[in-house]
Amino acid sequence: MTPPRRVGRKITTREPIIQEPEAFEPEATRRAAGVTESARANRGWWDRNADEYQVEHGTFLGDDRFVWGPEGLDEVEAELLGPPEELKGRDVLEIGAGAAQCARWLAGQGARPVALDLSHRQLQHALRLGGSFPLVCADAAALPFADASFDLACSAYGALPFVADPRLVLREVRRVLRPGGRLVFSVSHPVRWAFPDEPGAEGLSVSGSYFDRTPYVEQDEHGRAVYVEHHRTLGDRVRDVVASGFRLVDLVEPEWPAWNTAEWGGWSPLRGRLIPGTAIFVCERD
Question: Start and end of every Methyltransferase type domain (predicted)?
Answer without folding.
Answer: 93-185
